[in-house]
Design goal:
Helices cover 70% and strands 0% of the residues. By secondary structure, it is mainly α.
């Protein structure tokens, strides 16, 4: 089981690196069938997200979260897959769990929450979560790229209030009330 899983997992990695997602998917599925391992469930989810197969990605990230229940990356990506499926309340709940479990390392989850709320038309909540991401992200964190990308999208879309205040002190930047 374990050795066979490792073999297929490594093959999945190589195929994913070679930009052969369909074959990588098969290899990761074989790996998980032989012996379920977090890293291959997570990588399968990443492949599925790249193919925009959100339901399959959700299943893979759920498996990864089952194998490592408090894993920040698995839960964050599960929230992203649920968002892709239009299951916004579930996505927000999963992302809230990430923030609760990893308050100092939840930058991506906070950005996803912001994006989710802006997408639903709730600019106050979206601005709140984006400001939380800005407040908690370390200065050199690669997620700052996603913050800037979201701010640019908001400016282009003409979202009321423009870009959020850098310090989170703009009027209305109070924590949103639960829906």
């Amino acid at each position: 089981g374990f050795v066979v899983s490792g073999y297929h997992g490594v093959m999945g990695d190589r195929l994913a690196d070679a930009r052969q997602p369909a074959m990588a998917e098969r290899a990761y599925l074989q790996s998980l069938a032989a012996y379920p391992r977090y890293e291959y469930a997570w990588r399968l989810g990443v492949v599925e997200m790249g193919l925009k197969r959100y339901d399959r990605a959700r299943a893979a990230f759920e498996k990864a979260a089952q194998l490592d229940p408090d894993n920040r990356e698995a839960l964050t990506e599960l929230g992203s897959a649920l968002t892709g499926l239009g299951r916004f309340a579930e996505a927000d709940s999963v992302l809230a769990r990430v923030v609760a479990l990893h308050p100092r390392g939840a930058g991506e989850a906070l950005i996803y929450r912001a994006r989710l709320h802006f997408h639903q038309g709730d600019a106050v909540a979206g601005r709140h979560w984006l400001n939380e991401a800005r407040r908690t992200l370390p200065p050199r964190d690669p997620a700052w790229r996603d913050v800037r990308r979201l701010e640019d999208e908001l400016k282009r879309a003409g979202v009321a209030g423009g870009a959020p205040s850098p310090r989170g002190d703009a009027p209305g930047d109070t924590p949103p009330t639960p829906r």
